[in-house]
Specification:
Rossmann fold, 2 domains, six-stranded parallel sheet, alpha/beta, binds adenosine-5'-diphosphate, 20 helices, 494 residues, nine-stranded mixed sheet, binds alpha-D-glucopyranose, 18 strands
């Protein structure tokens, strides 16, 4: 059994802005069922504290002039011990973990997540004397990137793993911020945290972690190439011997069309015909004509360039003269929100848009749509296409990252051997999506084939079982690789 400290800036159902929360809410549970001693730590945002229900304060301490508390409870619906780091000045605010209520980044994000990372490092060294010392700290994305860098300053430390969920977000700040954070001065170096005269939080993970992984094998390869790496490909190639890709799993209880409480009608492979009830309900909810025979595409996601919005906006008008409908749920960049709303106003019987965030509606879209639109320009793993497969809603995806690793195209060979699960297209943005939508339409007209692909999609197993075991193997490899292992005798909390 290993002791693992899992550090993240969000975890479902405590707080969620995207896929990281889904992973941080379900991987620790899977590891617990593999008999690991795992503790989850995240900041004590107001929602997180409220949703955790019962908790107790297990430590009070001071760090960089802030009075901090460590709150201990459980992840709702699971037995995972969860620690919330309470620092009211930094985390007790409305808005989301990264943005204020107007959608702008919090100006003190560097201070907020540096303090979080410093506290995680203290816990990793048991400096709060909780009589629990992890063998490994699992860090996720830039918000925890300083942890491996800080721990590496120690003569003895736990092993570290840094998971890249999205290389596009790096936590870049100016030199003055570096000074303000009171980090060791020698970390201002191009072989440490400095990146083109900026402070890079993510480099803390990429340079100093014993192992690095990302959330699909394809993305692990892509980020070693300039097109996907924002200037970090050289560093990642340099560290390729400790870099791997592990596909995300999904919470198969939360996302189960057979039991999903958010659906009007539950269904499974044997009762797939009942899926249509969710479709007409969805058309009704979005005020679209309730026509069972019209091909309905769904989209759920952050409205940012990554999710292929430019492609969608450019391509959609080209297919609207055919019997199709589109429903969108998302929020993000104003320009995309506006452009989608405009399209919906121009084509009220074909396109409907809900700007906002709704966990329940996202389930109803997964169940009610026939096909799921996900033409991302890059996608480290992607979870929505996995939920879609499980709900028999055929994903239409660009051949990148995790989309490439999880969806198999409906080309003849794959249809013939019953391995096709969706519509996969390649080509640079602006290319390929229209043809993919037309291929989806063509397949939809062949009811027998469509159902065959739906059943193949629903048969796929993306539960955490395999991937959690892969993480466990990676934890062990990282612990073996740690050049400064903690030993009982060498360990002395300061
Ligand atoms: P990313 O993490 O890049 O946003 P993923 O596909 O990995 O993409 O995960 C996104 C998660 O966030 C999914 O669970 C998706 O359903 C959810 N999500 C995104 N936007 C919304 C929204 N507007 N309402 C409800 N859920 C959303
Ligand atoms: C990121 C990626 C997404 C991935 C998620 C969870 O937000 O954009 O592809 O599924 O993290 O790993």
């Amino acid at each position: 059994m290993s002791r693992i400290l899992f550090a993240t800036s969000e975890a479902y159902p405590l707080i969620k802005t995207g896929g990281l929360a889904d992973v941080a809410g379900s991987l620790p549970r899977a590891l617990l069922s593999l008999k690991q001693d795992i503790r989850l730590i995240l900041p004590a945002y107001p929602e997180a504290r409220e949703r955790m229900g019962k908790y107790k304060t297990i430590a009070s301490f001071e760090l960089d002039g802030h009075a901090l508390k460590l709150l201990q409870g459980r992840l709702p619906g699971a037995r995972v011990t969860t620690w919330l780091l309470d620092c009211p000045t930094f985390f007790d605010r409305p808005g989301n973990p990264y943005l204020n209520q107007q959608g702008q980044v919090w100006p003190d994000n560097a201070e907020r997540f540096a303090l979080f990372s410093k506290a995680v490092s203290m816990l990793a060294l048991d400096q709060l004397r909780l009589a629990w010392r992890p063998d490994l700290v699992h860090c996720n994305d830039w918000q925890t990137g300083l942890v491996p860098a800080l721990l590496d300053q120690q003569a003895r430390r736990p092993a570290t793993l840094f998971t890249i969920h999205n290389l596009a977000y790096q936590g870049l700040f100016d030199y003055d911020t570096f000074v303000k954070l009171r980090l060791p001065q020698h970390l201002w170096h191009h072989r440490a945290l400095e990146f083109h005269q900026q402070l890079s939080f993510i480099k803390g993970g990429l340079v100093f972690a014993d192992s690095i992984n990302t959330v699909s094998p394809s993305y692990a390869k892509e980020i070693q190439q300039p097109e996907f790496a924002y200037g970090l490909d050289g560093l990642l190639r340099h560290r390729r011997h400790v870099l791997s890709g592990i596909l995300n799993g999904i919470d198969v209880d939360e996302w189960n069309p057979g039991t999903d409480p958010h659906l009007l009608q539950n269904y499974n492979r044997r009762s797939l015909a009942k899926k249509i009830i969710n479709k007409t309900a969805l058309q009704h909810e979005f005020k679209l004509p309730q026509a069972p025979e019209i091909l309905l595409f769904g989209f759920i996601g952050r409205l940012v360039e990554q999710k292929g919005l430019d492609d969608i906006l450019q391509t959609l008008p080209g297919i609207l003269d055919t019997p199709v409908q589109f429903v969108f749920l998302g929020s993000g960049q104003h320009k995309y929100e506006q452009a989608l709303n405009k399209l919906a106003t121009q084509h009220p019987d074909k396109i409907a848009v809900k700007i906002g965030y709704s966990e329940e509606l996202s389930h109803r879209i997964e169940a009610g749509a026939d096909a799921f639109l996900m033409p991302s320009t890059f996608e480290p793993c992607g979870l929505n296409q996995l939920y879609s497969l499980r709900y028999g809603t055929l994903p239409v995806v660009r051949k990148v990252g995790g989309l490439n690793d999880t969806v198999k195209d409906i080309q003849k060979k794959n249809l013939d051997n019953d391995s096709a699960t969706g519509i996969v297209f390649s080509g640079t943005p602006g290319d390929g999506l229209l043809e993919a939508l037309q291929r989806t339409r063509k397949l939809y007209q062949d009811k027998v084939r469509w159902k065959q692909v739906q059943l193949a999609a629903m048969r796929q197993d993306f539960s955490w079982q395999r991937s959690a075991q892969a993480y466990l193997d990676l934890y062990h490899a990282s612990i073996r690789r740690n050049p400064k292992p903690l030993t009982a005798t060498a360990f002395s909390p300061s």
